[in-house]
Amino acid sequence: MTTTPLTRGWYRPMQARRPDEEHRVATPLELFFDLCFVVAVAQAAGNLHHDVAEDHLGHAVTSYLTVFFAIWWAWMNFTWFASAYDTDDDVYRITTLVQISGALILAAGVPRAFTEADFTIITYGYVVMRLATVANWVRAAAGDPEHRATTTTYALGVAVVQLGWLLRLALPEGWAMPAFLVLAVADVLVPVVAERRGKTSWHPHHIAERYQLFTLIVLGEVVLSTSVAIQSGVDAGNPQLWSLAAAGAVIVFALWWLYFDRPGPVPPASLRGSLFWGYGHYLIFAAIAAVGAGLAVAVDHDLHQAHVSGRTAAYATAVPVAVYLLALWLLHLRWKRGLGLLTFPVAIVLVLVAPWLPAPIHVLAGVLFVLVALTLVIRHRAPTRTA
């Protein structure tokens, strides 16, 4: 019996992979891609923290949501494309490294976007990432005749929208935000139009794993940013921050537990369901990263370094926690009946009330702890009720 050595060619035709392929897991290249992208996430969260602490709330929210859109959308497009067409040849690896380079350029432009509302560098990085995506879609069109209508629509749609992003840089300042909204909508409509011409063969379990891994990486960024903030407070001689650190840890642990409480749900097979599932994770990823920024603002407030009230500092954590719970409920849990249907909405209300109470971060931690406990009770009782 002979075995064929596992070799990787420099180029092979880009053909659709089977959506029922066995043992389909994230590749080292995909993990490296995620790791590099978290640099941009950390930059966005860090600048959100500083803007909120300086009481530039409107600017902070607008800048963060727009910057995070570019990060999330580029990551999401790579993820779904790779699930359907990853060949792991040398050309594909090079185009992926180009996308990573674009992510690093984008990350370098985040501070200027927050401080000067200058999105030039971010746009250049975004376009670099997306043009590499166009090259991959052209490869897919050449190698997969069965899906050529779909892949050609993707390539043309992405290329046209990128031209729009570059032209946006020449618009007067007052047109920047309206143009952003138009182009963002155009970007997210490309898959809607393309997939109607023929569904790409993405792997549902592979996609679920990729989303889980990125959730873990963003949670890791929250742990890092919070621990750095706590460390600066302890170094300044404020041992009371250990209590805040404990509450922050409970919040992060609860966010992890609630997402991974059950085996990872896969995206629905229908076009509408998969788009809702995939796009809805923008709120989950953005909210998780914003929780880290909010906890850092809470540390700054306790150190008397923030220029916001205690209630505003608390809402900097409470709002993203509430958004996370709402998105998680809509994407994974809204089909539940009985008590399971009500726990998340009730928890969201309590989270938004917490900043009006003493020790709001500790109250938030308590609400999430109880939510996790109720989730466990409901899950363990479910088989008994259905027996």
TrEMBL record:
Keywords: Membrane, Transmembrane, Transmembrane helix. The keyword Membrane applies. It holds the Pfam family LtrA. It comes from the Bacteria. InterPro entries: Low_temperature_requirement_A. The chain crosses the membrane at residues 61-82, 94-115, 121-139, 175-193, 213-234, 240-260, 281-301, 313-331, 338-357, 363-382. The keyword Cell inner membrane does not apply. This is Low temperature requirement protein LtrA.
